[in-house]
Each structure stands twice: as C-alpha cells, then as structure tokens.
Amino acid sequence: MVVDRIACERFEHEHLSKFACFADESQGRYKDEPLDPLRTCFQRDRDRILHCKSFRRLAHKTQVFLAPEGDHYRTRLTHSLEVMQISRDIARSLGLNGDLTEAIALGHDLGHTPFGHAGEGALSRALSEWRGIDPESSKGKTLFRHNVQSARVVQVLEKDGQGLNLSREVVDGILCHTGSRKASTLEGRLVALSDRIAYVTHDIDDAERAGLLRESDLPREPLAILGTTSSERIATMVRDVVYTSSDMNDIRMSDDVWNAMMQLRSFLREHIYTESDAKVDEPKARQLIIDLFHYFMEHLDQVPDEYRRHATKHPDIQVADFVSGMTDRYAIRMYQNIKIPRAWRMGEHS
User: Fold this and answer.
1) Cα-atom radius of gyration of the chain, to the nearest Å?
2) Could you read off the pLDDT of 268-278 as tens digits, one per residue?
3) Mind listing the pLDDT tens digit for each residue in 147-185?
4) Three-state DSSP class for 131?
5) CA angle at residue 181 from 179 to 186, to 5 degrees?
6) Half-sphere exposure (Cβ direction) of 40: Cα atoms closer than 13 Å
7) For residue 138, which phi and psi values (nearest 5 degrees)?
C-alpha cells in the first residue's frame, strides 16, 4: 500500500481537530504549481525549508552566545529544531496539523542576522542612519526585523532569487511568530508560543553551562510553578498549553504559567540578555555589522549578484539582505579582510 498525498489529506480530515488547518484547504502558493503525488503542500514546504541554504547557515548564527566555541551551546539551528519539537508535540495533542507547525518552526528564524538580536538592532540602526532617520525613533528601531526578513528569504531570496514558493499559511506563520500580529492559523500561533517556551528554557540551560547562572540564582516563585529542571519546565508549559487550549479556537497558557514564564524571561533579560559576561563583546558585534553595512553601501560591486538582482532601486535593501544572511564567522572573516591589513610577504605581490 502506498500512503500518497490523497491518503494523507484524508487522514487529516478523519483525525485532526475541526480547528486544524487542512492541507487540501490551504490558500495555496503565491505561484501555482502542480501538486506533489506523495506529499501534502505543508510536507513539501517543510522539506523545501530543510534543504535550503539559509537553513544550513543557522548552524553558525548566534542564539545568545556570540560565535560560541563550545559544542553544546545552542545556535539558531538547534533553537529552530527545539521549537519544531515543542510545537509538534503540542500540535499532536491538540489535533492540529503537525506538518504545518514543522514548516513554520523550521523557517521562523531564516532571516536572522549574525550575532542574534544584537545584529538585528545594529542593522536597523545602520539602515536608519543611511536613510537619515532617527535610529532611536520607533521607526528607526524597526527598519530591520528578523521575522519580516525570514518571510523575505523564503519568498524572494532563496533558490537563486526564485524563492521557495511556500504555502501562504507557512509564510504567514513565519511572519507572525513575533510581534503583536497573530498568525491566521492555530499552528502559526502555536509556533510563536513554542518559540518563547524554547528560548526561555534553553537560554537558562546555556547560561548555567557557561557558568553565568546556577539553578539557585533563579527566582523561586516561577520555579515553584514550572519546575526546577529544563525538562520539568518544558513539560509543565507544554501540558498547560494543551489543556488550556483544548476545545478553544486559540492557543493559550493559563495565567499562572504564562506569568511564571514571563518572570523567567524578565530575569534572563536583566541578568543574561543585557548584563552578563556573555554580552561583553556585543558592542563590537554591533559595530561590526554597522561597518559592514556602510562598507558595502560604498562598494556595491562587491555585493554578490544573488542579492543585487533584487530591490534594484533600493541598494540599502540589497546590502541588508547580504549582511543579514551572513553567519557569525563569515561576518568576522569579512570584517577582518576589509579592516585589518595583512602582513607583507616577500614575493607575494611581485
């Protein structure tokens, strides 16, 4: 027996919740193309993201620790995989479309800059300075947003400028995984919440591994609700989302668990995200991104053709596309080539 696309679509209607997004009821792709005989549209989208260049580059992009040397610190790639696992588990328990949650989770950070949120803020500042906009204004601070860039990656930049031509529900979930705008599907809203569950939990784990935190440093009140280990905290939040959201056309946490999670997030922001040894080099990383942006604005001929073929009337967008796509180590190497003189060797230039 072959379990083909039609069988998968039939299975969804027989076994998923009435609130799920069914593959055969998708709003479709931005460009029509023939259906795959074996895979649903969302399974196909997941595979396209998994095999694209931007996804592979996430292995060398900062999550919290800049260009980490240790083998066990999270990167954007491992973070995306953890978000996928959490969202898939919740989706299964709620009868939602796991293939759709996988696709959104794997693609949600494809547009992230090198050096994490420090790089994101730096690129916004560079764009605002170039355009003569106050970088401290609300507009200046949001000229570059990684969720918008992630959607741009899958729609425009990937596959040598053709884009991945994903289903509209996947692009919507990627775009709405952060910020005030809710995704149109429950699967997209689930990924947005799973993103928070994942980073609040694993950022504590990484900080403890780095010697920046001990479990005893964490505030007692949220731990009493969520648990005293990473696995306990994830399990508590996953169960809470499942039972709070069941039979409801929305994705939610109970107030107690949500408040506990946000308390831990506030603690991390105060002690790890802004003030810790892990952030000592962030000013250098921000300046590196700004300097790279301005250098390539003045040397557009050095921007690869795959970025220059887009936004031809807006070279600053071309440069932002190029710089944001860099990995941490590529950005550092590029900066060294541009800014640091090489030692002269006899005969090398003869």
Assistant:
1) 22
2) 999 888 766 66
3) 999 999 999 999 989 999 999 999 999 999 998 899 999
4) helix
5) 110
6) 24
7) -60, -35
